[in-house]
Inverse folding.
Protein backbone atom coordinates (compact mmCIF):
# COMPACT_ATOMS: atom_id res chain seq x y z
CA UNK A 1 0.00 0.00 0.00
CA UNK A 2 1.15 3.52 -0.78
CA UNK A 3 2.49 5.53 2.15
CA UNK A 4 0.85 8.78 0.99
CA UNK A 5 -2.53 8.54 -0.70
CA UNK A 6 -4.65 11.20 -2.30
CA UNK A 7 -8.33 11.14 -3.20
CA UNK A 8 -9.71 11.70 -5.71
CA UNK A 9 -7.03 11.13 -8.34
CA UNK A 10 -8.95 13.07 -10.95
CA UNK A 11 -11.77 15.55 -10.59
CA UNK A 12 -13.68 17.80 -12.93
CA UNK A 13 -15.81 20.45 -11.31
CA UNK A 14 -17.61 23.62 -12.29
CA UNK A 15 -16.78 27.19 -11.41
CA UNK A 16 -18.18 28.19 -8.04
CA UNK A 17 -18.39 24.68 -6.61
CA UNK A 18 -16.78 23.71 -3.33
CA UNK A 19 -14.35 20.84 -3.57
CA UNK A 20 -12.20 18.97 -1.08
CA UNK A 21 -9.04 17.05 -1.83
CA UNK A 22 -7.94 14.55 0.77
CA UNK A 23 -4.56 13.24 1.78
CA UNK A 24 -3.74 10.40 4.12
CA UNK A 25 -0.39 9.03 5.21
CA UNK A 26 0.75 5.91 6.99
CA UNK A 27 4.35 7.05 7.48
CA UNK A 28 3.73 8.52 10.94
CA UNK A 29 5.23 11.84 9.86
CA UNK A 30 4.48 15.03 11.73
CA UNK A 31 4.54 17.48 8.83
CA UNK A 32 2.21 17.57 5.84
CA UNK A 33 2.09 19.88 2.82
CA UNK A 34 -0.09 20.80 -0.12
CA UNK A 35 1.45 21.94 -3.41
CA UNK A 36 0.09 22.75 -6.81
CA UNK A 37 1.99 22.11 -10.00
CA UNK A 38 1.51 24.15 -13.14
CA UNK A 39 3.55 23.71 -16.33
CA UNK A 40 6.70 25.82 -16.22
CA UNK A 41 6.14 26.91 -12.63
CA UNK A 42 7.28 23.86 -10.73
CA UNK A 43 5.67 23.15 -7.39
CA UNK A 44 4.27 25.99 -5.37
CA UNK A 45 3.40 25.64 -1.71
CA UNK A 46 -0.23 26.25 -0.76
CA UNK A 47 -0.34 25.31 2.94
CA UNK A 48 1.73 23.30 5.34
CA UNK A 49 1.16 21.84 8.77
CA UNK A 50 3.81 21.04 11.35
CA UNK A 51 1.34 19.18 13.53
CA UNK A 52 -2.41 19.02 14.10
CA UNK A 53 -2.58 22.46 15.72
CA UNK A 54 0.07 24.20 13.65
CA UNK A 55 -1.04 25.23 10.16
CA UNK A 56 0.74 27.77 8.00
CA UNK A 57 0.08 29.56 4.75
CA UNK A 58 2.38 28.98 1.82
CA UNK A 59 3.11 31.28 -1.06
CA UNK A 60 -0.23 30.84 -2.84
CA UNK A 61 -2.86 30.22 -0.14
CA UNK A 62 -5.52 32.64 -1.45
CA UNK A 63 -8.65 30.77 -2.48
CA UNK A 64 -7.71 27.66 -0.51
CA UNK A 65 -8.24 26.39 3.02
CA UNK A 66 -7.00 23.31 4.85
CA UNK A 67 -7.88 21.09 7.74
CA UNK A 68 -5.56 18.77 9.67
CA UNK A 69 -8.07 16.33 11.06
CA UNK A 70 -5.47 14.04 12.57
CA UNK A 71 -1.76 13.52 12.30
CA UNK A 72 -2.37 11.25 9.32
CA UNK A 73 -4.93 13.36 7.44
CA UNK A 74 -4.64 16.74 5.77
CA UNK A 75 -7.36 18.00 3.44
CA UNK A 76 -7.35 20.90 1.03
CA UNK A 77 -10.55 22.78 0.16
CA UNK A 78 -11.41 25.12 -2.63
CA UNK A 79 -14.37 27.07 -1.27
CA UNK A 80 -15.45 28.40 -4.65
CA UNK A 81 -13.46 26.88 -7.47
CA UNK A 82 -12.30 29.02 -10.38
CA UNK A 83 -10.75 27.95 -13.68
CA UNK A 84 -7.24 29.16 -12.81
CA UNK A 85 -7.21 26.61 -10.00
CA UNK A 86 -7.02 23.93 -12.66
CA UNK A 87 -3.75 22.17 -11.82
CA UNK A 88 -2.09 19.06 -10.48
CA UNK A 89 -2.18 19.00 -6.69
CA UNK A 90 0.30 17.10 -4.57
CA UNK A 91 0.29 16.22 -0.92
CA UNK A 92 3.60 15.54 0.79
CA UNK A 93 4.85 14.54 4.23
CA UNK A 94 8.09 14.85 6.12
CA UNK A 95 9.48 13.74 9.43
CA UNK A 96 11.56 16.22 11.35
CA UNK A 97 12.18 14.07 14.37
CA UNK A 98 15.62 12.52 14.63
CA UNK A 99 17.61 13.78 11.67
CA UNK A 100 15.33 16.75 10.99
CA UNK A 101 16.00 16.17 7.34
CA UNK A 102 12.94 17.83 5.78
CA UNK A 103 13.01 15.17 3.07
CA UNK A 104 9.51 15.09 1.64
CA UNK A 105 7.53 12.12 0.43
CA UNK A 106 4.88 12.77 -2.18
CA UNK A 107 1.51 11.33 -2.98
CA UNK A 108 0.52 10.44 -6.55
CA UNK A 109 -1.27 13.72 -7.17
CA UNK A 110 -4.82 14.86 -7.91
CA UNK A 111 -5.57 16.31 -11.31
CA UNK A 112 -8.24 18.97 -10.87
CA UNK A 113 -10.03 20.64 -13.74
CA UNK A 114 -12.35 23.57 -13.13
CA UNK A 115 -14.65 24.36 -16.05
CA UNK B 1 14.01 34.12 1.61
CA UNK B 2 15.20 30.93 -0.01
CA UNK B 3 14.88 30.41 -3.75
CA UNK B 4 15.93 27.96 -6.45
CA UNK B 5 16.73 28.55 -10.11
CA UNK B 6 16.86 25.84 -12.73
CA UNK B 7 18.01 27.75 -15.81
CA UNK B 8 17.29 25.00 -18.33
CA UNK B 9 13.61 24.44 -19.02
CA UNK B 10 14.16 21.63 -21.50
CA UNK B 11 17.21 19.51 -22.33
CA UNK B 12 17.59 16.84 -24.99
CA UNK B 13 20.42 14.31 -24.86
CA UNK B 14 21.21 11.15 -26.78
CA UNK B 15 20.99 7.82 -25.02
CA UNK B 16 24.39 6.94 -23.60
CA UNK B 17 25.53 10.55 -23.42
CA UNK B 18 26.40 12.29 -20.18
CA UNK B 19 23.99 14.62 -18.46
CA UNK B 20 24.27 17.65 -16.23
CA UNK B 21 21.24 19.54 -14.95
CA UNK B 22 21.91 22.88 -13.32
CA UNK B 23 20.53 24.17 -10.05
CA UNK B 24 21.38 27.40 -8.29
CA UNK B 25 19.97 28.30 -4.90
CA UNK B 26 19.75 31.33 -2.69
CA UNK B 27 19.88 30.83 1.05
CA UNK B 28 21.72 32.60 3.83
CA UNK B 29 23.26 29.58 5.50
CA UNK B 30 24.08 26.00 4.61
CA UNK B 31 20.93 24.61 3.10
CA UNK B 32 19.45 21.19 2.73
CA UNK B 33 19.38 20.38 -1.00
CA UNK B 34 17.38 17.82 -2.90
CA UNK B 35 16.81 16.52 -6.39
CA UNK B 36 13.47 14.93 -7.25
CA UNK B 37 12.34 13.22 -10.45
CA UNK B 38 8.82 13.12 -11.83
CA UNK B 39 8.05 10.58 -14.53
CA UNK B 40 5.04 11.27 -16.74
CA UNK B 41 1.81 10.89 -14.80
CA UNK B 42 3.63 10.13 -11.58
CA UNK B 43 4.39 11.83 -8.30
CA UNK B 44 7.82 12.99 -7.25
CA UNK B 45 10.55 10.60 -6.22
CA UNK B 46 13.65 11.61 -4.31
CA UNK B 47 16.87 11.03 -6.26
CA UNK B 48 19.36 12.31 -3.71
CA UNK B 49 19.90 14.81 -0.93
CA UNK B 50 22.65 16.86 0.66
CA UNK B 51 22.68 17.85 4.30
CA UNK B 52 26.34 18.14 5.26
CA UNK B 53 29.69 16.44 4.88
CA UNK B 54 30.93 15.14 1.55
CA UNK B 55 29.90 17.59 -1.13
CA UNK B 56 29.53 14.87 -3.76
CA UNK B 57 26.44 12.82 -3.05
CA UNK B 58 25.29 9.66 -4.73
CA UNK B 59 21.68 8.89 -5.41
CA UNK B 60 19.48 6.29 -6.97
CA UNK B 61 19.47 5.30 -10.63
CA UNK B 62 23.15 6.22 -11.07
CA UNK B 63 22.71 9.93 -10.40
CA UNK B 64 25.07 12.10 -8.40
CA UNK B 65 25.17 15.77 -7.45
CA UNK B 66 27.85 18.11 -6.20
CA UNK B 67 27.30 20.90 -3.71
CA UNK B 68 29.46 23.92 -4.46
CA UNK B 69 29.04 26.55 -1.80
CA UNK B 70 31.12 29.15 -3.63
CA UNK B 71 28.83 28.91 -6.65
CA UNK B 72 25.57 28.32 -4.73
CA UNK B 73 25.02 25.35 -6.99
CA UNK B 74 23.88 21.77 -6.69
CA UNK B 75 24.10 20.32 -10.19
CA UNK B 76 22.83 16.86 -10.99
CA UNK B 77 24.91 14.54 -13.17
CA UNK B 78 24.76 11.13 -14.76
CA UNK B 79 27.58 9.67 -16.85
CA UNK B 80 25.38 7.71 -19.27
CA UNK B 81 21.72 8.47 -19.78
CA UNK B 82 19.14 5.75 -20.40
CA UNK B 83 15.87 6.20 -22.27
CA UNK B 84 14.02 5.59 -19.00
CA UNK B 85 15.59 8.74 -17.54
CA UNK B 86 13.26 10.89 -19.64
CA UNK B 87 11.29 12.82 -17.02
CA UNK B 88 11.08 16.16 -15.28
CA UNK B 89 13.67 16.96 -12.65
CA UNK B 90 13.20 19.34 -9.75
CA UNK B 91 15.80 20.84 -7.48
CA UNK B 92 14.67 21.94 -4.01
CA UNK B 93 16.19 23.82 -1.09
CA UNK B 94 15.24 23.68 2.56
CA UNK B 95 16.38 25.48 5.68
CA UNK B 96 18.49 23.50 8.09
CA UNK B 97 16.75 25.12 11.03
CA UNK B 98 13.40 26.58 11.79
CA UNK B 99 9.95 26.35 10.40
CA UNK B 100 10.32 26.60 6.65
CA UNK B 101 9.11 24.22 4.00
CA UNK B 102 11.03 23.26 0.87
CA UNK B 103 11.24 25.64 -2.07
CA UNK B 104 11.26 24.00 -5.49
CA UNK B 105 12.73 25.14 -8.77
CA UNK B 106 10.57 25.32 -11.88
CA UNK B 107 11.93 22.05 -13.21
CA UNK B 108 13.95 20.79 -16.18
CA UNK B 109 12.32 18.45 -18.64
CA UNK B 110 14.73 15.85 -19.99
CA UNK B 111 14.15 14.24 -23.35
CA UNK B 112 16.31 11.27 -24.39
CA UNK B 113 16.90 10.56 -28.07
CA UNK B 114 17.60 7.01 -29.22
Amino acid sequence: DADVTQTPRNRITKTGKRIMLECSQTKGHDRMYWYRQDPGLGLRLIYYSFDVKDINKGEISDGYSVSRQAQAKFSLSLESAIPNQTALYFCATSDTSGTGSHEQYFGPGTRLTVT
Amino acid sequence: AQSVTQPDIHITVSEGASLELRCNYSYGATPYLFWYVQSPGQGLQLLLKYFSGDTLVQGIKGFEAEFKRSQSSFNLRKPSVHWSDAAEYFCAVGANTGRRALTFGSGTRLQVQP
Remarks:
- The interface with chain A takes residues 6, 9, 32, 34, 36, 42-46, 49, 51, 90, 92, 94-96, 99, 101-107 of chain B (CB under 8 Å).
- Chain B has a mean pLDDT of 91.
- The radius of gyration of chain B is 14 Å.
